[in-house]
Specification:
With 198 residues, this protein is α+β, with helices and mostly antiparallel strands. It has three helices and ten strands; from the N terminus they run H-E-E-E-E-H-E-E-E-H-E-E-E. 39% of the residues lie in helices and 28% in strands.
Length: 198
């Protein structure tokens, strides 16, 4: 077989061999690309899951649990606010109503309950709640009335007729509403139409 015949013989098989190599190379490249895409998607899913988990843990570490209750002792009557959560409660709005009518101050509340009362700030104790921060574990005395014949009468008159609605938020700006005396709590924000200032 001459050299030219030999070259012709190999050239006859060469295109098939080259074509087969090209197909194999493209197939491997496609598989590699698909694998890289799958790994990227899996990494993205894991990253999103970890970010959500981290966010949930962060929320749990700064979650306020604000409440209001009333207390009786041998010396008097109290309305207390407290925060049993894991983060501070930022109080943004307070609505106090007597028989469905909003009041703006404790003295106005006592006047609404008993217009001829003789109580003033010299006889009662009050504390600010609106636009304040209730720290973790803090209990704040909002209203204190010492026992007298007059305060006993006021308590009888106010029984079941006073309501307090408080909007509070976490440092991550998640907000809740607490209602006294029902104890109802909802994850929503509200702004009092008539703000209670103290």
């Amino acid at each position: 077989m001459t050299r030219s015949e030999s070259c012709g013989f190999f050239n006859y098989f060469r295109p098939k061999y080259v074509l087969k190599n090209k197909v194999n190379r493209e197939l491997f490249q496609s598989i590699g690309t698909a694998a890289a895409l799958i790994i990227s998607v899996m990494a993205l899913v894991v990253s999103i899951y970890e970010a959500n988990l981290l966010k949930a843990q962060q929320k749990a570490t700064v979650w306020p649990y604000f409440s209001i209750n009333e207390g009786y002792s041998s010396d008097g009557f109290r309305i207390n606010a407290f925060n049993n959560g894991t983060g501070p409660a930022l109080i943004s709005s307070v609505l106090v109503e007597f028989q469905g009518e909003p009041v703006t101050k404790y003295v106005a509340l006592l006047d609404a309950i008993k217009p001829d009362n003789t109580l003033g700030y010299d006889k009662i104790r009050v504390n600010q709640l609106s636009n304040t921060v209730v720290k973790v574990g803090e209990q704040r005395e909002l209203l204190y009335l010492p026992w007298t014949d007059e305060t006993r009468e006021i308590l009888e008159l106010m029984n079941g007729k006073i309501s307090i609605k408080v909007n509070y938020c976490s440092v991550l700006e998640e907000c809740w509403t607490f209602e006294y005396p029902s104890g109802k709590r909802s994850k929503e924000a509200f702004k009092a139409t008539v703000a209670f200032e103290n």
